[in-house]
Amino acid sequence: MYNLKINYGPEIDRKLCNKCGNCYQYCPQDVFGWDKDKNEPTVDYAGECDMCCFCEILCPQVAIDVKIPLHNLLDFGIAPVNYKKISDTFEE
Ligand code: SF4
Ligand code: SF4
C-alpha cells in the first residue's frame, strides 16, 4: 500500500487568516472545507488544486501560499534559480 503525501496546493497561515471564507467560497476546485467548530477554512482536497492561485488573489489577509510542484514551474518557465542549471543540461 502506498502512502502518497500531497506536498503542493494551498497553505494557510493561521496567524494571518481572519476567517472571511473567501477561499472556501470561491475556489473553483472545491479544495477547501470549513471547520465549523473552529470557524475557519481547512485544506481538504489539495490533490484537486489546479494552481490557479485564485485563492491567493482573493485572500484579503495574504494568508494563502499556493505551493506549485517543480514540474509545473518548469512547464511555466519559472523554475527556481537553483534548478536552472539542471534544466540547462537537458537542452540540445
Ligand atoms: S490555487 Fe485555485 S484551485 Fe488551488 S486552492 Fe487556490 S483557488 Fe483552489
Ligand atoms: S481567504 Fe484568507 S483570510 Fe479569508 S478565510 Fe481564506 S485564508 Fe482566511
Main beta-sheet annotation: 2 strands, antiparallel
Q: How many helical stretches? A: 4
Beta-strand percentage range = 15-25%
CATH level 3 topology: Alpha-Beta Plaits
Can you describe this structure?
With 92 residues, the protein is α+β, with helices and mostly antiparallel strands. It is built from four helices and four strands. It has a two-stranded antiparallel ribbon. It has a two-stranded antiparallel sheet with strand order 2-3. The structure holds iron/sulfur cluster (SF4) (2 copies). Residues 12, 17-23, 41, 58-61, 63-64 line the site of one iron/sulfur cluster (SF4).
List keywords for this structure.
92 residues; two-stranded antiparallel ribbon; binds iron/sulfur cluster; alpha+beta; 4 helices; Alpha-Beta Plaits
